[in-house]
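ok here's UDP-N-acetylglucosamine kinase:
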Amino acid sequence: MKNPAWFVERDGRLEIRAGRRALHRQLREEMREENPGVKAERRAIILAGPPLAGKGTTLRQERADVLPSYLVIDADDFKKKLLTEAMRDGTYESVIKPQAIKDLEAGGEQFFPLELASLVHEESSMLAASMRDQALRDGTNIVIDTVLSSPEKAADIGRRLERAGYDVEVIDVEVPYALSEERIASRWRGDYLDALDKGEGLGGRWVPAEFAREVFNGPDGKSRPEAVAQGLAESAPNVVRFSRYRTEREGAPRVLEVDKVRVKPGGPLVDRQATLLSSAVQASRATKGRSVPGLAPSAGRRIPLSGGKRPPNEVPSGSRLRLCGMV
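and the structure:
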């Protein structure tokens, strides 16, 4: 980010020079082309969880039916693209790689690009943010893949999505610190050895231990993402569904611990299964022309069987039920 050939500071702000701006545009276009089925329905999924909790795997398995219509925005994907481009144009050696690493390599040690991913962290975050902002302007369905450890940043994301008219689902994926640490080491080792064996590739990305440990330093023994995700889901009126998955140890099944929906804008989050059961009972009664207790504000009000206008706020719309994963 400090390379003057790529960036210039004006009035305390970092601006991208024309050549680097063209690369950013190219990388964003590549990302869009990798997601050809994306739709513009103003829907967002926010992924939260500690490093190596399995957020991407959970998303692919639990939301496989809708995922092709979403643009996944992950700064880590941009890190890989930036490093790949740097290797291609020579700036990995001339600009990114520190002299200390070069000295170690001269002594026989071997490093791979993803081990230096922290050096392009700011730029990858800039790319992810600019792509997200453009997606919001276009109404594109998006997945925001993040640790979500900062309440302030989470609240900012929530406000931006609300202003843009988005319905939001928050998915929190949790593992204990020991499992996160084990997976970080295992992934790095596997990718590093694979790159050594092939003599090419980006290698493995290492997550600093101090960062991983801090992520688990949340209130009441929770991880920071767990607390922040729950706070965002409860406070943001446009969050229509909140789920939390937890895996206690490697090889153990992933457990759906929390699954709540907000069937009315600004209303409370309620248990999804209970709501499904209630909706089924209400639908059954409605088809028999009976009143629906608990929904009508006054006695004797009925759900019309055909034609007519449904009394306001009695039953959530079909589109909102679909967003909540209830139909």
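+1. The chain is about 45% helix and 15% strand.
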